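Weekly puzzle thread! Below is a chain. First person to post its structure in token form gets bragging rights.
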Amino acid sequence: MAATPAPPAAPPKPTWDPNRPEPPFPWLRPTIRIRLTLLYGGMFLIAGILLLSIIYLLAAQALRTGSEPLFKIVEFNDLKVTSNDCPGVNNKLSLTEFNDAISACTDHQRQVALDHLLSRSLLALLGLAVIAFAFGYAMAGRVLSPLGRITRTARAVAGSDLSRRIELDGPDDELKELADTFDDMLERLQRAFTAQQRFVGNASHELRTPLAINRTLLEVHLSDPGAPVELQQLGKTLLATNERSEQLVEGLLLLARSDNQIVERKPVDLAEVAAQAIDQVHAEAEAKGVEIRSTRAPAVVQGNGVLLERIALNLVQNAARYNVPEGGWVEVTTEVQHGQAVLVVSNTGPVVPAYEIDNLFEPFRRLRTERTGSDKGVGLGLSIVRSVARAHGGHISARPREGGGLVMRVTLPI
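Winning reply:
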């Protein structure tokens, strides 16, 4: 007998969160714009230094400090000389001393001229470098502006808005080709995603009618007091199976519906949503010996109340069902942290390895195995929670709790 194939591995999760806030100082990031600015300014600075060095060397060679003087005084009688720049030149010197003083003064003036040329050239180079860096930063921003549009569109798409397009104008260059390719990919993704949602919705709707008819027929047969015991037992089994199929269909409908962005939003208090979920699960938890305690502070968000209630209900139900046999508890907390509404559901339960956390959010999967064979649910609870949270612009995270169990944290924008 052939071995049963292993279930497909869960796809890798994206490491970038589109809802992650921007860093506090974005200009300190080593972005492409900053790197291009440094490249443009650095190249200009290097070229300016080379040009200044060449000019300085040519000027020094032309002035030739230390070379033979251009002229000499061979004889002077009754010559009176005065100079503010060369005080050493006066009438008290001999002819040779006078010529030497003239030569030293000329060399000094040449060196002063070279020093002035170097210092003023460096100041001019520094000013031009600042202008070059500013101009390079502006030009880099202009050149990279299409990439900014592509990035903003990609972020919108990551938030489940597949209708966005870049529609980049301008010359037919590499950036426009990239934008057009990205638009074509988005078009194909939207068509595939819409077709998938339509198929799931239509199939789920088509299945609801025969399942409802089956449930009615089974309930009618079970209501017959003269039915044999075997038939009664079979009817109860079939009714439980039919109920499970109805739950699966409802879960698929809700999953297909929650994958879209929420268009109509109303104020919803997570504290009230959590209270309703606790009321619905209270009887089941009490039957299992699980204590439910809560600390609910007001946390109002804009969204769909039915879908948000499904988040709390699924989390509290899972926390109560997957718990320890004795002395278990579930804790539900709602609060506002850092401008976001937070719903936290923690519970006691079996030890969950950290590397198994991502598998819990996949449809029809549970810890180390598929969930399709479990009598605790249809395996769509956490998948629905994640889809609803994403549709509201939020996200859900899970971490193992010390001693066993999980801590589920849902964060939604206010």
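Puzzle host: Confirmed. Bonus trivia for everyone else. Helices lie at 32-63, 95-158, 174-222, 229-258, 270-287, 305-321, 381-391.
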